[in-house]
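Field log, afternoon session.

UNIT: design team B
ACTIVITY: writing a sequence onto a fixed backbone
BACKBONE:
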């Protein structure tokens, strides 16, 4: 059995809360308001001082020495509970046994770093003597291999989830997180002072029923791809700022925030060439329409999210930090036109990255979550009051422990993180888009969509895009009537409001080529009719014949 050197430099982690003595956390590490679990400056090694397990020397060093005593199971304490956290806390052990599917609140991802936390329960606090105890975690794999690691913690009373250094914590490298893995654990005394006392009952081992306790990692392939577009806002007669410099530091921060708050094993960011925009930005919606129309020019696949960053020369939309073109309700190739968003490039990387995560969330199908009361169009099915995330979270890159009172990143409140509900909301979207990496190149939508943007000032913009009207809810009120020769063809439409402003998207599948259409009328509420200027439609996609 290999030793799992979770605190060594060889894991490329320099793990938080892994000091030279292998203990977890700093004395003040808690998550009452979101705390970073401070890493020790020194790198610990897998020796007796860091793991509590004696290492073997050479034959000459050990000749004549007595065998070390057998590890002594801890007295007066149990270890009944475990959670795994790759972003949101997921129970994997409860009351001494493994937690099955019905007890899980979120998916765990293969090949993604994981924090495992074990909780000690003191059986009789009045008679308890605070002391250091050592926990051994063993990970077992389908191929018969095992990995193990120890953690030593001063146990003063029951472990509390909000205090990091009261739990036994293992940060497991991504390469050791595999589907089908299960785990065992045991809690030991660090001295022989209680040798000869009665065996503990119940014993501080896990699982207590002897059955396999699965971590619950499924075989998965979860990628999130984003094309970043630096936008130069160029207005005649104005001294406008250059396009944002999307340097390595900026891209890394965007990458890290998106990775930590999404159920993925990899985030892939690509910086595209500068995009010049010459119209006013008093509304961001026309810019979003332009970015959507440019997807083909960008050369990105349907699984790629397009995200523009800009410094508006005219100040931009009042009070709006970013915007998405829509909130697609199905992960289809046809709605790639809605996987488009933009955000301001702030002087603060934190604000820029926070807006980025929020707006990409919209394009993953997420609506706002109510917290401040200013969030428009909130998702009323969200389960936690006040927009709280509801469970503990953990940043697998920055090692911040987030309390349940943080707010979901789709709110307008501060101290945001991903909720387990939000994690699960985007999981099937990411899963579907990732699967397209294995599709045949010819597997593309065969239809043509007619897309309209109805702006708040009464103007309209129309263009074509490849795709079919699939997976989206069509309106019972709105439609398009296309006059083709002597026929009038009625096309159902998806009709939805863009987040953050009053622009509406109208999307219909063309039943015939535009060449055969002499007139189009948009039918609205109450049967109101609005003509669509056919000659002004931008023909971006090939049309059905």
């Amino acid at each position: 059995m290999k030793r799992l050197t979770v605190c060594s430099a060889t894991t490329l982690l320099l793990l938080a809360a892994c000091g030279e003595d292998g203990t977890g956390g700093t004395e003040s590490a808690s998550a009452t308001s979101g705390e970073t679990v401070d890493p020790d400056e020194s790198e610990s090694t897998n020796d007796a001082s860091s793991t509590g397990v004696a290492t073997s020397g050479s034959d000459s060093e050990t000749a004549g020495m007595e065998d070390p005593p057998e590890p002594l199971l801890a007295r007066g304490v149990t270890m009944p509970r475990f959670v795994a956290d790759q972003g949101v806390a997921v129970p994997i052990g409860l009351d001494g046994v493994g937690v099955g599917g019905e007890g899980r609140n979120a998916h765990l991802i293969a090949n993604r770093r994981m924090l495992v936390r074990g909780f000690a329960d003191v059986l009789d606090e009045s008679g308890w003597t605070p002391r250091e105890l050592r926990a051994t975690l063993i990970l077992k794999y389908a191929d018969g291999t095992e990995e193990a690691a120890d953690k030593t913690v001063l146990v003063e009373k029951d472990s509390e989830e909000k205090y990091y250094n009261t739990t036994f914590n293992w940060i497991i490298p991504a390469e050791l997180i595999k589907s089908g893995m299960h785990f065992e654990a045991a809690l030991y005394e660090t001295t022989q002072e209680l040798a000869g006392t009665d065996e503990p009952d119940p014993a501080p081992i896990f699982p207590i029923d002897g059955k396999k306790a699965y971590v619950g990692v499924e075989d998965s392939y979860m990628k999130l791809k984003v094309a970043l577009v630096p936008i130069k806002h160029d207005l005649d007669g104005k001294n406008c700022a250059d396009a944002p410099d999307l340097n390595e530091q900026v891209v890394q921060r965007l990458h890290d925030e998106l990775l930590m708050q999404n159920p993925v094993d990899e985030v892939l960011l690509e910086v595209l060439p500068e995009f010049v925009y010459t119209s006013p930005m008093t509304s961001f919606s026309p810019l979003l329409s332009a970015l959507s129309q440019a997807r083909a020019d960008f050369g990105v696949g349907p699984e790629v999210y397009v995200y523009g960053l800009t410094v508006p020369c005219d100040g931009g939309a009042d009070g709006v930090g970013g915007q998405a073109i829509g909130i697609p309700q199905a992960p289809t190739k046809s709605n790639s036109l809605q996987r488009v968003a933009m955000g301001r490039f702030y002087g603060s990387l934190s604000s820029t990255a926070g807006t980025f995560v929020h707006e990409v969330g919209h394009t993953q199908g997420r609506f706002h979550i109510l917290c401040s009361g200013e969030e428009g169009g909130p998702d009323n099915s969200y389960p936690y009051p006040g927009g709280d995330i509801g469970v503990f979270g953990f940043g697998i890159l920055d090692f911040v422990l987030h309390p349940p009172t943080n707010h979901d990143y789709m709110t307008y409140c501060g101290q945001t993180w991903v909720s387990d509900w939000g994690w699960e909301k985007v999981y099937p979207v990411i899963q579907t888009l990732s699967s397209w990496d294995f599709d045949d190149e010819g597997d593309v939508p065969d239809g043509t969509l007619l897309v309209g943007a109805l702006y708040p000032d009464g103007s309209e913009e129309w263009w074509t895009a490849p795709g079919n009207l699939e997976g989206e809810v069509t309106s019972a009120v709105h439609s398009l009537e296309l006059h083709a020769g002597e026929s009038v063809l009625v096309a159902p439409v998806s009709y939805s409001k863009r987040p953050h402003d009053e622009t509406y998207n109208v999307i219909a599948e063309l039943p015939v080529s535009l060449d055969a259409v002499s007139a189009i009328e948009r039918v609205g509420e109450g049967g109101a009719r609005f003509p669509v200027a056919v000659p002004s439609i931008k023909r971006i996609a090939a049309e059905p014949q």
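LOG NOTE: The chain has three domains: 2-58+68-218, 223-386+410-438, 448-536.
NEXT ACTIVITY: expression trials, pending approval
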